[in-house]
Request: fold
Amino acid sequence: MYLKEIELENFKSFGSKISIPFLPGFTAITGPNGSGKSNINDAILFILGVRSPKMVRAERLSDLIYKGEKDARYCKVSLVFDNSAGEIPIESDEIVLTRKIKLAPLPNNPGNYYSYFYINGKAASLAEFVELLSAANISSSSIVQQGDVTAIVEMGDVQRRKIIDEIAGISEFDKEIDKAKNEREEVEKNIEHIEIILGEIRRQIRQLKKERDEAVKFRELNDELERARAMISFKK
Reply:
């Protein structure tokens, strides 16, 4: 599996629709300062999932829409993956992940926007993007940005371990473990609640059994009393 093409439309400095092909192996993107090299990296992150607009050097995602002589109303990015090896669990040799930001101004929020996701042209969600890419161990952490290496060297052991776990895919197992622990705790709470209810039912059963035994004893004594009265009446 590899990234074979990026399609950009009205994204940052790219005011038209362009396609950038990638070949298997090593690909270098070169050009003078300000030519848009970093924006290509931002486009990839835009698809893989950004935790904050600052990851793509923007204050808000609507800032990614091209602004020029004629401002665009939307931007769109597609990553085209070769999936001939079947690493992404979809029966297709080519996977196209598309994300679109469309402006929807409001009176009190002119920068309001909507975000749309597509997988092979069908509407989807960011969560589905992440799920598919996780199957191939790809995420926004796969992109090493300027200054990242220095930051990793300077960060503490715990933070570094978290990054390594995320890259290795271990963090996904940790999430499943945490989920299982939470479910177990919920089950244990339910069991405890059920045990309390069962204890109350057992207490009620014991009480009812005691009352039943007393009722049976009363009926036996009452029968004896009636027989005694009958015998006295007979003797008279």
User: Anything to note?
Assistant: The first helix runs from residue 37 to 48. The CA atoms of residues 205 and 211 lie 10 Å apart. The longest strand covers residues 2-11. The mean pLDDT is 83.
